[in-house]
Amino acid sequence: MVMEEGLLLARHQNDRDDLRITACVILSTFVAVCSSFSYGCASGYTSGAETAIMEELDLSIAQFSAFGSFMNVGGAVGALFSGQMAVILGRRRTLWVCDFFCIFGWLSIAFAKDVLWLDLGRISLGIGVGLISYVVPVYIAEITPKHVRGAFTVSNQLLQNSGISLIYFVGTLINWRVLAIIGVVPCFIQVIGIYFIPESPRWLAKIGSGKEVESSLHRLRGKDVDVSGEAAEILVMTKMVEEDSKSSFCDMFQKKYRRTLLVGIGLMLTQQLSGASGITYYSNAIFRKSGFPETLGSMIFGVFVIPKALMGVILVDKWGRRPLLLASAIGMSIGSFLIGVSFALQERNLLPELTPIFIFVNILVYFGCYAIGIGGLPWLIMSEIFPINIKVSAGTIVALTSWTSGSFVTYAFNFMFEWSPQGTFYIFGVLGVLSMVFIWMFVPETNGQSLEELQVLLTGTT
């Protein structure tokens, strides 16, 4: 009871200064999402560089499909160690490790003379982005005030989309090796920037550094702000969960955590089985099959995606997570079905002059809806719903789910598309409908609540 009263008192005391956004929060978020930009470049790279790489290195479709999917294989490896590494090394040092793998990966691709170095670079890049996909949203969620936590964390997805857009826009215009050099630049910026940002106060509380918690919060909230209330809330809740659990791997399977684990895994499957990674990696192949000009399609796509992702950043704390997820799933499902219908019309030689435009427009609809919701919100919600004592194990399982399912979709997409373009998108449309049902039934609204309040709400920890 004493702890509960202290937690409630800390919450009320903290509310007055909660609306403040400092330059340090903005800088810390910017530095963190530099790696997200590199992640986006990696996601779009295979589409922009496909033709040139296959011709120069004489790759078959199977070899290039393997090259594309190897980032997801590496991502699964990175995901296995992401949570534990973020706890042992801290969020900032883990970002440095991400940069090491990404820099090695990009340079290996840029100077590759054969498929071996190409694949090795892609796997290394995958390990880096596998770590990024966990630590970046967690770090941002842990340093930002609750009223802007959604927007700041979803900026992770905005920068990913910006990286994809850049590669799509210039990918058909410049050499594939130069594209790889572009991808490495944000990593070098982050390596330097990490020196100037604070560690997560919640990680500091986890390792028992009470004084450093307040020091970190002062940098994040302002030196003239009384952070004692927020520090007390973080320290009290951290102590409560440590007393409540021994933090073993099996803890996350306790009954009180089952809902959060189901939501985390389910949202990652929703994101990956929608087919977005496969379409992103091989969009130029889709444009070719539809008869739409590749260069024009890539450029328009590159310009289109960023405003939609920016819309998600603006709306996530105004509308909430659930409405955006539902709207996103509905739009993606409709877009998938309409792409499938358009390919069916093309196969029957109906409206031959219009079907390429129909396909392209519906790809824009699909990705616009993906960018505002399902593209980034699963990682935001993952960073919010797990309490500190299971964040490592649960976060690792969730990230691993994302990367392994993404690897399957990425590798299978080319073969599915060769089998039946319309059938491929009908499958994605059906999975989109199932996603809507899952979101409606299981996903909670997390908007406007502190991470400690969410833990009480979702797990009943008191």
From TrEMBL:
Keywords: Membrane, Sugar transport, Transmembrane, Transmembrane helix, Transport. Coiled coil: none annotated. GO terms for cellular component: membrane. The chain crosses the membrane at residues 21-40, 60-82, 94-111, 123-141, 148-170, 176-197, 261-283, 295-316, 323-345, 357-380, 392-413, 425-443. It is a multi-pass membrane protein. The keyword Transport applies. This is Sugar transporter ERD6-like 11. It comes from Cardamine amara subsp. amara.
